[in-house]
Design brief:
One of its GO terms (molecular function) is catalase activity. By secondary structure, this protein is of the alpha/beta class. Helix content is 26%, strand content 14%. It binds CIS-heme D hydroxychlorin gamma-spirolactone 17R, 18S.
Length: 742
Amino acid sequence: MFTNHEEQPVSGTAHQRNDIPGAPGAEPPTVEEPTSPREPLPPKPDQSGPATVSPTGQPTGADQADVAQRGGYLTTAQGARLYDTDHSLKAGPRGPVLLQDHHLREKITHFDHERIPERVVHARGAAAHGVFESYGTAARITRAAFLAEGARTPVFVRFSTVLGSRGSADTVRDTRGFATKFYTDEGVFDLVGNNIPVFFIQDAIKFPDVIHAGKPHPDREIPQAQSAHDTFWDFVTLHTEATFHTLWNMSDRGIPRSFRMMEGFGVHTFRLVDAEGATTLVKFHWKPRLGVHSLVWEEAQITSGVDPDFHRRDLADAIEAGAHPQWELGVQTFPDNEEQMFEGIDLLDPTKIVPEELAPVQPVGLLTLDANPSNYFAETEQVAFHVGNLVPGIDVTNDALMQGRLFSYIDTQITRLGGPNFPQLPINRTHAPVNDMLRDGMHQTAVHRGVAPYRPNSLDGGCPFLAGAGTGAYIEAPVEVPAARKVRDAAASFDDHYSQARLFWRSMSAPEREHIAAAYTFELGKCYENAIKERGLKVLANIDGELCRTVAAELGLPVPEPTVELADPDPSPALSQIGKQWPVDGRVVGIVVTDPAQDVSEARQAVLAAGMVPLVIAPTGGEGVQRTFATARSIEYDALVLAGAPQPAADGYGARDAKVSDDAEAVTDIDSRVLLLVTEAFRHGKAIAAYGGGDAVLEAVGFTSADAGVVGAAGGGDAVEQLVGLLRGHRVWDRFPPALGG
Ligand code: HDE
């Protein structure tokens, strides 16, 4: 068989030259797009890259557009214009490819090297640019200039999961990273935190072990991005210091609704230093303006398949829509005494929190994320955080986890980013002048002048000189180190692995407890080894008897006795996510219509007026329709409006076909995909409103406005108004059965 190309008459040299634009005899282009060469559009305002300065602090005059595609013509990497990039240079149209094809070789060689190693942990992430505005309230305890009153500092924030590979899903049960790069005038400050305020381990030397246990099994490389497997539970039940962190993971905190609705924590205790050198110990907190909100487990699982990029999309969409997410940075403060304890809590133990009721979080500034990255690789992938990126006024403590991190971050970037010059990458460049004596190395992009990168010297005018306290030097706080013997050991207070886990459990509401018990049941139930399940139950017995009994009953295993005395600490209400009211900005409301032409402008406008996002769902596409019954799944919506009486289902989608209900009489006429949408939304605690005959769908699946969070409405505006009231509580919690101490 001949291809079209082969059927063309081949007429020697003339044919071979014909497709060179402008060459004698060249045919005019037969396609309408692209038209003629033109300068590309400038980046959208929210796509401009970080302000760039050279490694020596001078403005480069180069913004993003200078290093990306520019100009109307395709060129090689060396700037030579190309006339064809779709055909290799061959000895005749059917002949072998010639080695001399430098364009082919350049194109493929570059492609062959496009990937860099993914992060050894926190491989999957999403990021955004923003600004941090300081209230000045921290100025009395730190000299950090970016925490002075009114200071505005550009930031870049990367959120991540910990265990999954770069291509894994967003909504898996896991800890989330919350890493912020502050480009301050005094140098870069990185606050490399998580959405959980404690960590698995107390000493960095165990980090490779906990990660080996959490990552997929080394033989089959499964399961991906999961903690529900034997090696994870083997580790966390043998290293019981992990109990508290694991309990956070099993709680709703392990499956956030959105990056925008997560708290962030610096985890370790930091030391702040004021202008006189006085020190205060602090723990950093990020408090989301939209409140802390989570998915429910079934929703998280469905989302992993339906939209694995759910969190990434949510963040980017919200920023693009102008719903800029905000967090307040706050600090808990503690006196810097010799013991470094507060109310009996060891501040150097990263598996412990200080309840907010004992040390309130004091707001010190506001973070707003207002611009999406222009290029995922250049920014989100190449950003390199480091716990040791500190500015004057912020210092570290002796937390053994933190100390190990101070070594690890630079080290890992050298492999990941191919050498020691990663601070020169645009996203990593400080906005403060750089005058270092670091030279050469792979991917060096600075052209350093001068002959004397050492000091003192007499050749480069003696430069650079050393700064002092009065000229902005970073000076470590001169903390006393008590005389001690070298040991591989930890303080006795580090042996308490359960009391704060119990405090957390006692602070949870009934539905939160139910979710925790279900999560342990699922995760331990996925383990193959009975010994690991039994050890897991022993850990639970030391948290709470009822939790342990519930999970044991589900696993069909005996209930062990606790091995520690169960104290009854006061609950910390701040740990619960339920019972507060939050803004509804950026929440997604699905409006189900039965005819693509149906007018739902009143409902749409009401959703928009409330600062939320309306998505119209119709049987088929059409003007004003964003989702069809084929593309809509419940997980995308925080609430549903059923607008209009249902029409007969399309062939193959009757409820009988989908076996949605046994009561086939009542439901055969309604599209089974809509029935699934509504039943899932109901099961996941989402608010539902119906008007204009939409209640027929509710009736078909057995719901009425007597059910919690299901409302009948007079019209679109009324429906949305009622939904807003329900959405402020995030979910309809009354639908979850009161269980486990509720
Ligand atoms: Fe990390 N961690 N970590 N970590 N971590 C990394 O650095 C490490 C820990 C955190 O979005 C790595 O650039 C050690 C605690 C975040 O790019 C690596 C220990 C907390 C991110 C590393 C810890 C974190 C990382 C991998 C035990 C919360 C993602 C890639 C002592 C306070 C940053 C990289 C981003 C990334 C080491 C424990 C947060 C290997 C040795 C505790 C948010 O350097």
